[in-house]
Write a structure and sequence with these properties.
alpha+beta, Glutamine Phosphoribosylpyrophosphate, subunit 1, domain 1, six-stranded antiparallel β-sheet, 25 helices, globular
Length: 624
C-alpha cells in the first residue's frame, strides 16, 4: 500500500523538484521508502512513497523499471494472486529479481498487455510507462481496481497529464467545481469521475486509460462491470452458503499473505465476525483482533466482539476511547482535500491510529452489506412498498414536493420528500444532507441558474444505477455498490487507514465473490420479509457462537445534532469564511437556528463544516 504520483509533458521537461515535493505530500501513505524516476527524454516523471508489505527488501523499491528499461511502474495496492501469476509467467520463460507483486504486475503487462487486468485479483491503482518500439508509440497505461478500493486522481489537457493517489498531490490549482459541489451537497460525497477541483477527474472503479505520449491523446474505458443477475429463484440456501463460504475462504487466505504483522478489525457485527472466524480457522497461531470500545456509551458494542473473540480464542485487543466529539475533527482535518460528509471518518481514523500500534495490515468486513443485502433500508423499503404501492406515483410526487417546502430538519420531512419516485426509490430521493428542494436554498440564485439542467443530476445518477437491477432488492444493492460503497465507504477506509500507514484489506470485495453475489444469489436469499443477508446468517450458524446476535444492525452512529448544540455551532461559524461564494450564508443561519429549535440539521451542518475545511486546505496547499 503506497502513494503514487507522476507527470507527463507534451513538449517540456518535468520539474523533478516539483515532482518530489508533490510525492512527499503523500508520505503518510508510504513512510518506509521513496523513489523518483524520469524517462530518457525527461518528459515523464514517476514518484512513489512505499509502505512495505510484501518483499521488504530494496528489491521492492519503486518506481520499478523492467523490460531492459522499456517499462517503468508505480503501483498502490496489493495483487493477492501474485504468486499464481508469477508461476504462470515463469513457465513462459520470464525471470524475476524480487519477491514483490509489483514486479509480477510489470511482467504481466509485458506478457499480456492490457488484458493483464482480467487476471489481477486485488486492490490497485497503477501507472506503467511504456517506451514503445518501432510498431508501438510510447504511452502511459493506468488502471484502477474493480471495486474502487484504491484512489486515482488525474488532470489532463493538451499539454500535460498529472496523476496522484490524493488530490493534495495534484499541482493543478483550478477553481472549485460547481457541478461537484452539487453532487456533494446532495450525497455527502463526490461520485464517479467528478472531482472537487475543476479540471481534475477521478478514474472510476474498473476503468483503465492510455495516454499516447506521441500524439498526447487520452482514452479511458471500462474493463469490468457487475454481471447480470441470473440466479435460480429456487436455489438452496445451504448450497449458496457452501459456495459463498468456499469463495470467502480463498479470499481471506489470499489476503493473509503478508511480510508484516496482520490482524482483523472486529466490530462484533456479522461481516467482520465472519472474516475473523475464517481467518482464525486458517491461521496456525491465534489471530490478532481489534475492537473499538466506548465505555459507558450506548454505542459501545465491545461485548459482541468479545463474545466472538472468546469463541475464536483470538489475541484480542480492546481499544478504549473516550466518546469521540466534534473536536476530534481537528485532528483529521489534514486528511480532507476532497470533502466527505460521512462523520464515521472520525472513529475510523481513531481505531486505525490505535490499531497501527500493533499491526501494519488489517482485514475488515466492508462490502458484505452490498453483496448480501445487509442494509436495514432494504426490508423497510419493501415493507413501505407493500403499504404504499397502491398510491398513484403522481400523488406521492406531489406529497414529496409539498414536504420539500418545509424547513430543513422538521420531523418527517425527509421521509415524505423521499417518496417522489415511490417507496422503493427512497434511498435516491431522501438525502440526509441537501435534497433537491434544499439545494435550491443553499445555492445562491445566480449559481443555481448556472446549474440549470443538471441540478437533479445526483439523483439521476443513483436512478441509473438502480434501474440496472432486475427486481427491487437487486436494484437497491446495485445502486449502493456503484455509489456509496466506492465513493464514500471505501474512500473513508482508505483515507483513515492510510493517514496512519495502516493497510486495510477487504475480502468481501474479491471480484469472484462480487460476481457470485450479484449473479448467483436470488434476491429472496438476500432479503425476505424483515430478514436480511440470509446466506450470511447460514454461515453465522456454522462459524459463530450461537449466543451472538447477528441480526442487529446498529453500526457506529455519530450524534451530530448533540455535537453541534454542545459546540454552539462554533466550528461551523469558524469555517463559514472559507466556504465557496456560491453558498448562501443566510440559509446556514437558518439551519443553525432550526437546530437550536430542535430540528435535525446536524448532518447538514457537518457537511458544510467539512466543505469549509476542504476549502481552507485547498487554499493552503496551493499557496505552498
Amino acid at each position: 500500500m503506497c502513494g503514487i504520483n507522476g507527470i507527463a509533458k507534451r513538449d517540456a521537461a518535468v520539474d523533478r523538484n516539483s515532482l518530489i515535493r508533490r510525492r512527499d505530500a503523500l508520505t503518510h501513505r508510504g513512510p518506509d521508502d521513496a523513489g523518483v524516476w524520469l524517462s530518457g527524454d525527461g518528459r515523464v516523471g514517476l514518484g512513489h512513497r512505499r509502505l512495505a508489505i510484501i518483499d521488504l527488501s530494496p528489491a521492492g523499491h519503486q518506481p520499478m523499471v523492467g523490460g531492459d528499461g522499456r517499462y517503468a511502474i508505480v503501483f498502490n495496492g496489493e495483487i493477492y494472486n501474485f504468486r499464481e501469476l508469477r508461476s504462470a509467467l515463469q513457465q513462459q520463460g520470464f525471470k524475476f529479481h524480487s519477491d514483490s507483486d509489483t514486479e509480477v504486475m510489470l511482467i504481466a503487462y509485458q506478457a499480456w498487455g492490457e488484458s493483464c487486468l482480467n487476471r489481477f485479483n486485488g486492490m490497485f491503482a497503477f501507472v506503467i510507462y511504456d517506451r514503445g518500439d518501432n510498431l508501438t508509440a510510447p504511452s502511459l497505461f493506468f488502471a484502477r481496481d474493480r471495486a474502487g478500493k484504491k484512489p486515482f486522481y488525474y488532470f489532463y489537457d493538451q499539454q500535460s497529464f498529472e496523476f496522484a493517489s490524493e488530490l493534495k498531490a495534484i499541482s493543478h490549482g483550478g477553481e472549485v467545481s460547481l457541478s461537484a459541489l452539487n453532487y456533494y451537497l446532495a450525497l455527502g460525497y463526490i461520485p464517479g469521475e467528478q472531482c472537487f477541483i475543476e479540471g481534475v477527474k477521478k478514474l472510476p472503479p474498473a476503468h483503465a486509460g492510455r495516454l499516447n505520449l506521441k500524439t498526447f491523446d487520452l482514452q479511458v474505458s471500462q474493463y469490468w462491470q457487475l454481471p447480470e443477475n441470473r440466479a435460480d429463484a429456487c436455489a438452496s440456501g445451504e448450497v449458496l452458503a457452501d459456495e459463498a463460504e468456499a469463495l470467502l475462504n480463498d479470499a481471506v487466505s489470499l489476503r493473509m499473505v503478508s511480510d508484516v504483522p496482520l490482524g482483523v478489525l472486529l466490530s462484533g457485527g456479522l461481516d467482520s465476525s465472519l472474516i475473523a472466524a475464517i481467518a482464525a480457522r486458517q491461521s496456525s497461531a491465534p489471530i490478532k483482533t481489534f475492537t473499538l470500545s466506548l465505555p459507558g456509551s450506548k454505542l459501545d458494542e465491545a461485548s459482541y466482539a468479545q463474545c466472538v473473540a472468546n469463541h475464536l480464542s483470538s489475541d484480542h485487543h480492546v481499544l478504549e476511547l473516550a466518546m469521540p466529539s466534534l473536536g476530534d475533527l481537528e485532528e483529521i482535518a489534514f486528511l480532507i482535500d476532497e470533502p466527505l460528509a460521512d462523520s464515521s471518518l472520525i472513529p475510523s481514523y481513531l481505531i486505525s491510529k490505535l490499531t497501527r500500534q500493533h499491526v501494519t495490515v488489517v482485514l475488515g468486513g466492508d462490502g458484505g452489506d452490498e453483496l448480501f443485502g445487509g442494509y436495514s433500508d432494504y426490508p423497510l423499503a419493501l415493507a413501505s412498498q407493500q403499504r404504499l404501492g397502491w398510491i398513484p406515483r403522481p400523488l406521492l410526487a406531489g406529497t414529496s414536493h409539498l414536504a420539500g417546502l418545509l424547513p430543513a430538519g422538521v420531523r418527517g420531512r425527509n421521509r415524505l420528500a423521499s417518496l417522489r419516485g415511490g417507496a422503493l426509490e427512497q434511498q435516491i430521493w431522501g438525502s440526509p444532507y441537501f435534497d433537491i428542494a434544499l439545494r435550491k436554498r443553499i445555492f445562491l440564485p445566480e449559481y443555481l441558474r448556472q446549474l440549470e439542467g443538471e441540478h437533479e443530476a445526483p439523483e439521476h445518477l443513483l436512478l441509473d444505477l438502480f434501474n440496472a437491477g432486475k427486481d427491487a432488492v437487486d436494484c437497491m444493492t446495485r445502486s449502493h455498490f456503484g455509489s456509496i460503497l466506492p465513493d464514500d465507504f471505501l474512500v473513508k477506509v482508505d483515507r483513515a487507514s492510510m493517514a496512519v500507514s495502516l493497510e486495510a484489506r477487504t475480502p468481501f470485495l474479491d471480484y469472484r465473490l462480487m460476481e457470485f453475489a450479484f449473479s448467483r444469489i436470488p434476491s429472496n436469499w438476500k432479503v425476505q420479509g424483515g430478514e436480511t443477508r440470509r446466506v450470511e446468517q447460514i454461515l453465522a450458524r456454522r462459524l459463530l457462537p450461537a449466543q451472538l446476535d447477528t441480526r442487529r444492525k446498529q453500526g457506529f452512529s455519530i450524534p451530530l445534532d448533540d455535537w453541534m448544540r454542545a459546540d454552539k455551532c462554533g466550528m461551523v461559524r469558524n469555517y463559514m469564511q472559507y466556504l465557496p461564494e456560491c453558498i448562501n450564508r443566510g440559509e446556514i443561519e437558518n439551519l443553525i437556528d432550526g437546530l437550536f429549535r430542535g430540528r435535525a440539521n446536524g448532518a447538514r451542518l457537518y457537511a458544510l463544516l467539512v466543505l469549509g475545511i476542504a476549502m481552507k486546505n485547498k487554499g493552503s496547499t496551493h499557496a505552498a
